[in-house]
From TrEMBL:
<protein>
    <submittedName>
        <fullName>Hydrolase</fullName>
    </submittedName>
</protein>
<dbReference type="GO" id="GO:0016787">
    <property type="term" value="F:hydrolase activity"/>
</dbReference>
<keyword id="KW-0378">Hydrolase</keyword>
<dbReference type="InterPro" id="IPR000073">
    <property type="entry name" value="AB_hydrolase_1"/>
</dbReference>
<feature type="domain" description="AB hydrolase-1">
    <location>
        <begin position="26"/>
        <end position="258"/>
    </location>
</feature>
<dbReference type="InterPro" id="IPR029058">
    <property type="entry name" value="AB_hydrolase_fold"/>
</dbReference>
<dbReference type="Pfam" id="PF00561">
    <property type="entry name" value="Abhydrolase_1"/>
</dbReference>
<dbReference type="InterPro" id="IPR000639">
    <property type="entry name" value="Epox_hydrolase-like"/>
</dbReference>
Length: 273
C-alpha cells in the first residue's frame, strides 16, 4: 500500500492506494469519527485482490492536515474527496463509508451522482442533528480545544475501542497504537472544535429518499454507537438499499469482520443492476 499527500481545497489530504488502477473497479474507503485509514487495515488486503482501492484520511484525521483554515462541514469534506478523485483521474467509482464516513459518502452522491456506481454504508451515522447552539458558541472559546482533549482523555483510546468492538480480545497493542497516533499532534483538538462548529447535521429524510444509487448497508447486531435500529430505518428511507446484519459484531465492522464485509462488498459490486 502506497501513502501519498495531495493539495486539495487548501489542505494536504493523505490517501493510501493499492490494487490495480488499470483493470479493476475503484472503491473509495472513508473512515469514521476519531479514526483514519488505519481502520481499514484488515479489510484492504481482501479488497485489493479484486479492486483498485483508495483509502482517504478525512481532515482533520490521520495524516491529513489539521488546519484552522479548512471548513469541516460534511458538504465540504465530500467536495474535497470528489476533487481528490478528479486529480488522480478516477472518473467512476464506488464508495464505502464507515460511521461518519457514511454521511460523507451520502453527501458525495448528492453532489456527483453520475460518478458513483454504488455505495456501501458500514454502520453509517444517520439522523443526527447539528450541534446545539450553546455548544457551537462554546467552540469559539480559546480553552475549548483543551476541554475536548480532556474529555477524550477521560476514556482514552482503550476505553473508546472497548465501546466500538464487541470481541474485546481483538484490542491489542498495534490497534491501540494505530488509533492513538493521530492524537500526538495537538493541532487536532482545535480542528475538532471547528468540526463541531461546522458539521451541519446528517442528511434529511427527504434527501435520503431522493438518492437513487444502489446502497448496501452492513451493520453489527451489537453496535452501541449507531444501533441496528438506525440501520433498519436507513434501509427504509434509501430507495435502493439492502441491509446485512453481522452477528456478534460491534460498531467497528471493518476491523471485526473484514472477510465477511469483503465478501458482501464483492458480491454487491459485481452484481449487475
Amino acid at each position: 500500500m502506497q501513502g501519498k499527500k495531495v493539495w486539495i481545497n487548501g489542505i494536504r489530504l493523505y490517501y493510501e492506494e493499492s490494487g490495480s488502477s488499470s483493470t479493476a473497479q475503484t472503491i473509495v474507503l472513508l473512515h469514521g469519527f476519531l479514526s483514519s485509514a488505519f481502520s481499514f487495515r484488515m479489510l484492504v488486503p481482501y479488497l485489493e485482490k479484486d479492486f483498485h482501492v483508495l483509502s482517504i484520511d478525512l481532515p482533520p484525521f490521520g495524516y491529513s492536515d489539521k488546519t484552522k483554515k479548512f471548513h469541516y462541514s460534511y458538504k465540504n469534506m465530500a467536495a474535497t474527496v470528489l476533487r481528490l478523485l478528479e486529480v488522480v483521474n478516477v472518473e467512476r467509482f464506488s464508495v464505502a463509508g464507515h460511521s461518519m464516513g457514511g454521511q460523507i459518502a451520502l453527501n458525495m452522491i448528492l453532489q456527483s451522482p453520475k460518478n458513483i456506481d454504488k455505495v456501501i454504508l458500514l454502520s453509517s451515522s444517520s439522523y443526527y442533528s447539528r450541534a446545539k447552539r450553546h455548544h457551537i458558541l462554546a467552540s469559539y472559546l480559546p480553552f475549548f480545544p483543551i476541554f475536548i482533549k480532556h474529555y477524550l482523555s477521560k476514556t482514552g483510546v482503550i476505553g473508546n475501542l472497548k465501546s466500538v468492538v464487541y470481541d474485546q480480545t481483538l484490542i491489542d497493542s498495534s490497534m491501540i497504537e494505530g488509533y492513538a497516533q493521530q492524537f500526538e499532534d495537538t493541532r487536532i483538538f482545535p480542528a475538532l472544535a471547528r468540526l463541531l462548529r461546522h458539521r451541519e447535521g446528517d442528511l434529511s429524510i427527504k434527501a435520503l429518499q431522493s438518492i437513487q444509487t444502489p446502497c448496501l448497508l452492513i451493520w453489527g447486531d451489537h453496535d452501541k454507537i449507531v444501533p441496528l435500529n438506525i440501520g433498519k430505518r436507513l434501509a427504509r428511507d434509501l430507495p435502493h438499499a439492502r441491509l446485512v446484519v453481522l452477528k456478534e459484531t460491534g460498531h467497528l465492522v471493518p476491523e471485526e469482520r473484514p472477510k465477511e464485509v469483503y465478501q458482501e462488498i464483492q458480491f454487491f459490486l459485481n452484481l449487475s443492476t
